[in-house]
Every structure is written in C-alpha cells, then in structure tokens.
Specification:
This protein is α+β, with helices and mostly antiparallel strands. The protein is built from two helices and four strands. The protein has a four-stranded mixed β-sheet with strand order 1-4-3-2, with helices on one face.
Length: 109
C-alpha cells in the first residue's frame, strides 16, 4: 500500500496506569470530548477532529514511549487556558516555527 491510499490518522492508542486520572486530564484539562468509556476492561475514547484517542489502563504503564503533539490556533491563549485549569507548560511555547514544544504532562501516565 502506498501513502496515497491513506486518508488520515484514525486512532492513537495510549496505555495509562490510572484510567480515571488520565480521563480527567484529557477531558478537564485539555478539554477533549469523551465519547465512550468501558470498565471493564478499562478503556476510554476521546475525539479530536478526525482522530480518536484510545486510553487503555495497563498496570505499570508509563508515558515514556508516547508523545502527543496538539496544534492550537493561538499558543498564548492555549497556555492561558491551561493556567486557568491549574497547569503550566514545561519549557517555553512559541507561535514562531519551529518551536512548538511546550510540554504538559498527565499524572495518569
């Protein structure tokens, strides 16, 4: 199959050690839409544009193997919104390419 047959990234799967804490992070801090949760087996789905994020609770999971990059219209407004929710970025975020590398971490990973 060539890349010409691919349309978009449909789903990303992430393991987490605490599903409820991770749901709170993606829903309450980042504002993603929770579309489904199944416990058991301990999975949840969020929708972000055309891409679905699947979270799966796995004992001992860490976030060391996964990094998600989100695009925002206004990096300063996004940073202010995160600050209002009690979060801050590690490192400086910038709207000037190529620095789009502010980091925020979920405790559930």
């Amino acid at each position: 199959m060539t890349a010409a047959h691919l349309q978009h990234l449909h789903q990303v799967a992430l393991n987490c050690s605490d599903l409820q804490l991770t749901i709170k992070f993606y829903r309450d801090v980042l504002g993603l839409s929770l579309i489904a949760e199944f416990s058991p087996p301990g999975i949840a789905f969020f929708q972000l544009g055309q891409t679905r994020l699947m979270l799966q609770q796995v004992a001992g999971a860490t976030s060391a193997s996964s990094v998600l990059y989100f695009a925002v219209q206004d990096v300063n407004a996004a940073q202010a919104a995160l600050s209002e929710r009690g979060r801050s970025l590690r490192g400086a975020a910038s709207s000037n390419p190529p620095r789009h590398d502010g980091h925020i971490r979920s405790e559930g990973h």
